[in-house]
Amino acid sequence: MFLSPQTKIGSRNAAIILQQNSFSLFSISEPVNMETNRILCLGKLCVDIIAECEDFPQEDSDQRCKRQRWQRGGNANNTSTVLSILGAPVEYLGTIANSHELGFLRDDYQRAGIIIDNCVIVDNCSCPVSLVLLSSVSGSRTIIHDSGSLPELTHKDFQVDLGSYAWVHFEGRPSAAEQVKMLRDIDNHNADLEENDRITTSVELEKNRPALAQLIDKADYVFISKDYATAHGFYSKEDAVEGFVDKIREGATVICAWGEDGACAKPKGEPTISVPAISPGTIIDTLGAGDTFNAAMIHALCKGAVLQSALTFACKVAGEKCGMKGFSGLRYTDLSFEAESDGSSSGSK
Ligand code: FRU
Known about the structure:
By secondary structure, the chain is α/β, with parallel strands linked by helices. It has helices spanning 75-85, 102-112, 176-191, 226-231, 237-244, 289-302, 307-322; strands spanning 16-18, 23-26, 38-42, 46-53, 67-73, 90-93, 95-97, 120-122, 129-135, 141-146, 165-171, 200-205, 221-224, 253-257, 263-267, 273-275, 337-340.
């Protein structure tokens, strides 16, 4: 039931054009079947109120910003945004407050082509909001987050037709115990299926929350953030994947992105693969760069890329994102690349 990292999950999308030298042209926006090949992202949705500042403000000062904008935020939500831009059929699942922000969020999802049909709209609570200060001088993003009074999604809320999904991605939340039950449902669903028809799962361990530890052996791919790794005493991406690999399940892969130091991945029992970061030149906006990396990684693996190619692609997309405001410019960026594929399968789910 476990997928090796080389398994052609992406064969469902039939997007790999195999060439004689076993290299394939990776095309990011081929038509895909929304009914069976969807990528589902679960986790946080909030409104990011972003102030673009010349410099980081002084305390107790009164000043003008260059611009202010609202953006859909939250790790899982951002990952869904980038997946959609990359051409993947994508759905976001979470709770959404029935507050004045709902109209903005709903319209924006519709514009982005992201399905939210299974979301739970919750009355009488406030929407999570982040105030984000972007500094043009340093490229830093400072986030002040209010999680509001919106409850987390529970296992009971996980009422989806699992037959619709090729991949389910979880941003690890404080409600990780509920997410473990959802992951168990997916494992049970997979148990009776042929390897090519199974749902691939991933979890993101980003914030240093004790509850997240229970997710590490429950998915096929485990994304460890630099913050999570350093909080656990690992000070390089390689040390991080080597330190966490014993905790992941058989057949799984641990992945770690380390900002300007690139990214690496280690399938259990196999060597570590490291790739360098790809810099955009000028850093404009790093908000959601990690979420972008995760999206690009999932997308590339879904398309059947081998780990090294997927890591290179993810570093490229995350680097490009840091050189632009928000995510939508990725739509107009040349992100095609030569992806090495193991060429083991074809066809759609
Ligand atoms: C970026 C982000 C923002 C959000 C914050 C929540 O990774 O998801 O969109 O405001 O982190 O921690």
